[in-house]
From TrEMBL:
Keyword Transport (UniProt): yes
Membrane topology of this protein: Multi-pass membrane protein
Protein name in UniProt: Cadmium transporter
Lineage: Bacteria, Thermotogati, Deinococcota, Deinococci, Deinococcales
Entry similarity comment: Belongs to the cation diffusion facilitator (CDF) transporter (TC 2.A.4) family.
Domain Cation efflux protein cytoplasmic residues, every copy: 205-283
Length: 294
């Protein structure tokens, strides 16, 4: 399934889950279940934003955007983080009302069944979105999937707490659980926004990726002397890699180009969607550090 279709599926399932969670709140009158339903609205809006972002990110490069549009996905993830923060504030407000005027819970069995069905749907969806998002290197899908999985954990915790409140008769447990839900999604929103802003700011990728690049260059750069000044960044699903390749001064342009082609092929075979820039230099420019070519 393409990333766009996965986002569309997320949107449709999100609407269904929201309807189920709102029914659970309707039957029980639980503030905690209301907060759980409210978070599903965030899922719906976020899935819609991810769908738009993925469509934009898939557009080819043009004169105004020579590096493509893949960073559009980060805006979706940032928006999702902002929406999560907004949902948390709304939940705090409802919890405050619940502390002031605790409500008696009703029809907990019906509400529990409906909530469990909604959580099961979310669990399947979240697992699928994370798997697809990682496979195609999509920040929007991965963020959406992680949020959905957080929603599953939250929903299960809410349901257990609401059932406990019903069994013990302690009404204040209901708004207290809503507060815990809000704190949990605040943390999720902060993590999403931090990662997405890092992508927009061209933060360096993980050290494991850079080490993998060094190994590939060293293995496929036969004929060159060294490579240095390696830099890399992510832009959505594409990784941009650049470095300087030092070759013997007597080497012809064609021979140096052949080495570059071999390195690029090795990087693309392992890392797939990459854009590579190699600056070829004579041995007088060697820095005697960086990547030693085997």
């Amino acid at each position: 399934m393409t990333p766009t279709r996965a986002a569309l599926l997320s949107l449709l399932v999100g609407v269904l889950v929201f309807v189920l969670k709102y029914l659970a709140f309707y039957y029980t009158g639980s503030v905690a279940l209301y907060s759980d339903a409210l978070e599903s609205i965030v899922n719906i809006v976020a899935a819609g934003a991810a769908l738009i972002a993925l469509r934009v990110a898939a557009m080819p490069a043009d004169p105004n955007h020579p590096y493509g549009h893949t960073k559009a996905e980060y805006f979706s993830a940032v928006l999702e983080g902002v929406l999560i923060l907004f949902a948390a504030i709304t939940i705090f407000q409802e919890a405050y009302k619940g502390f002031l005027h605790p409500k008696e819970l009703k029809d907990l069995n019906i509400g529990a069944i409906i909530s469990l069905v909604a959580s099961g749907l979310n669990g399947v969806l979240g697992t699928y979105l994370i798997r697809i998002g990682r496979a195609v290197r999509s920040p929007a899908l991965t963020a959406d999937g992680r949020h959905v999985m957080t929603d599953v954990v939250t929903s299960v915790g809410v349901l257990l707490g609401v059932m406990l409140a019903g069994l013990t008769g302690i009404r204040l447990l209901d708004p207290l659980i809503a507060v815990l839900v809000a704190l949990n999604i605040l943390w999720t929103g902060w993590q999403l926004m931090k990662e997405s802003v890092g992508g927009l700011m061209d933060a360096a990728p993980k050290a494991e990726l850079l080490e993998q690049v060094r190994h590939i260059v060293g293995q496929h750069g036969e004929g060159a002397l060294e490579a240095h000044d390696l830099r890399a960044r992510h832009a959505g699903r594409i990784t941009f890699i650049e470095f300087h390749l030092v070759v013997p001064g007597s080497m012809t342009v064609e021979e140096a180009h052949t080495i570059c082609d071999r390195i690029e092929a090795g990087l693309k075979e392992t890392l797939h969607e990459v854009e590579i820039s190699i600056h070829v230099e004579p041995e007088s420019k060697a820095k005697h550090h960086g990547i030693v070519v085997l």
